[in-house]
Amino acid sequence: MPAVGRSIPFDGGIAARYDATRGGNTRARNVADGVLPWLPEGPVVEIGVGTGIIGATLAARGRAPVGIDLSAEMLGRAATRLPGRLARADATAPPVRDGVAAGVVAIHVLHLVGDLPAAVGAAARMLRAGGRLAVSGIVGDRQEGDDVSEAHGDINERLRRLPPPTIEEITAAGAGVGLRLVHDGFLERLTFGRAPNVAAQLLADRTWSWCWNLPEDVWAADVQPVIDRLRALPEPDRPRPHWMERRIAVFERA
């Protein structure tokens, strides 16, 4: 059963370092390359627009989206990239008329939404017949294993308040609102380097949303040992080549 509760806004200072810690323009281009071929011509809405970096990439390719986000801080960053095209709202209640969108894009955001069926239903309502919802941030991403991954373990999965949805959960939520799965695949492989000390510092700085509100006893028992293991790896300042393939699913409105 999908988790239901309060959605997680990206306030508290993360907006200033979001792009630098989430892949920046390289990731934005990767997402645009994977999403655009699946979107019919017409208006696009991006749920969880964040800093607008993906939306700006879509705009540069002729598909400027209307962006929705819960975080005022993130929208402040996005305003320079998508001026006049933003609204502050939860994904479960977007201020968009029914049936006007050719595409709705939800990139790595549904794991932050407190009510998955409501968010999927809201996306479906925005879509016209034949419109499509593109989603990433689904269980099933593929990545290379290395000593950084081994040291990190599954701590983020164990400690996050809202887990990433499965494709089965999204499909089930969409079935009742006229959405059917038309594509289940992966974005193009991204290759990058990551050093153990950098990975450790990202944890120590509480960069990831699952870190933000952890009690200190949980931090000491579960997170600090991971930081210590990462910093103890051989050559901790040497970047390890690493690749990742993000899973993407596309749903079409009947």
Order of helices and strands: HHEHEHEEHEEHHHEEHHEE
Helix-and-strand structural type = alpha/beta
- For this structure, the CATH topology of the domain at 15-143 and 162-192 and 245-253 is Rossmann fold
How would you characterize the largest beta sheet? 7 strands, mixed
Helix percent band: 25-40%
User: What's the tally of helices?
Assistant: 10
CATH superfamily of the domain at 15-143 and 162-192 and 245-253: Vaccinia Virus protein VP39
The outline comes out as: globular
Could you list the spans in which at least 5 consecutive residues all have pLDDT below 50? none
Distance between the termini: 25 Å
The CATH architecture category of the domain at 15-143 and 162-192 and 245-253 equals 3-Layer(aba) Sandwich
Main-sheet strand order equals 3-2-1-4-5-10-7
As an assembly, this protein is single chain
Explain this structure.
The protein has 254 residues and is of the alpha/beta class. It has a domain at 15-143 and 162-192 and 245-253: Rossmann fold (3-Layer(aba) Sandwich). Helices cover 35% and strands 22% of the residues. The strands form two sheets. The protein has a seven-stranded mixed sheet with strand order 3-2-1-4-5-10-7, with helices on both faces. Strands 6-9-8 form a three-stranded antiparallel sheet. Helix 4 links the parallel strand 2 (66-69) and strand 3 (86-88). The longest helix has 16 residues, at 216-231.
Summarize the structure.
This protein is α/β, with parallel strands linked by helices and 254 residues long. It contains ten helices and ten strands.
